[in-house]
Write a structure and sequence with these properties.
Layout: H1 13-21, H2 26-57, H3 62-75
């Protein structure tokens, strides 16, 4: 079973009234919004890391790549 925690937020009373009128369940809506936000930020972070790695790797010469590959094979 997944462990859970409670997260709360203060919202305008008019928004709460509209949510009630429209039968919007705040916990489900907030959970989905947070899941989307976490996924989006995770992808953004991964892209930044990939860009940084690409920049570093682009500075390596063909000889350095070859040496790294050979050393990796020798470790096996």
């Amino acid at each position: 079973m997944t462990e859970t925690v409670t997260v709360s937020a203060k919202i305008d009373i008019q928004l709460k009234k509209k949510m009630d009128e429209l039968d919007i369940k705040p916990s489900e809506t907030i959970r989905k919004a947070l899941e989307r936000e976490v996924e989006e930020r995770t992808k953004e972070k991964l892209k930044r890391q990939m860009d940084e790695a690409s920049e570093i790797l682009s500075k390596l010469s063909g000889e350095e790549w070859t040496k790294a590959i050979r050393e990796g094979r020798d470790l096996r």
